[in-house]
Amino acid sequence: MLPGLREVYGAYARAADELPALPGALQAEVWASAQLGALESAAPHAQGRRAALGDLVTVLRRAGTPGSLSFLRVLAAIGPAEIRGVAGRAAGELRGLPEPPWADALGAVTPGQVWLIQKGPLDGDRLICEFRYAGGADLHALAVRLSYSDAPGEVVVVGDVRALMAAARQAMQAELCVVQPHDPAAVGPRLRAALDGAPPFPEDCYPALALARHRASLLP
Description:
Layout: H1 6-15, H2 25-42, H3 46-63, H4 66-78, H5 81-92, E1 109-120, E2 124-133, E3 140-146, E4 152-158, H6 161-173, E5 178-181, H7 184-195, H8 206-217
Antiparallel strand pairs: 1-2, 1-5, 2-3, 3-4
């Protein structure tokens, strides 16, 4: 639908060869989220983004490589809602290709503790939402900084949650911030509204945006 981006889609399909060698589902999801973020940040409007996503799925299916299959599997698991079903069907057409051992774990995470970090009324709120894969593996967190108007100012995925929280508690002891448990049922709607809000977002938010939306969708 967007022939001017044909070379971009081809570059994504070639880059997907990196995916099967990644060590786990989280790394694959972070990788794919960054690619989706680049597409979204360049899209002139929502219709253009949907067209680009459809084109990307078509190109990945035609590529027919283990990497393109892995990319389609990630899209089906954590991609934008409007593309998950299409990506899943495209991946089904490539069955028989080798898949990495983490393929079935994609998107299969359980929410955990939620924390609220506040540095001051002008800095907004930092929401830290923990997630784990099956069996408690690969603890990670979605960290989102919201302004006083709930606009996203920072969106990152944190792999070393223990180090993050240890640093936050040290800052609290130094009276630089307040750290407290928060109600996931209050955080879920707030995050979804912020992450699904009207673009543009700060440039640094885009690489983690697709993964953040997926994780926020799992909160109450």
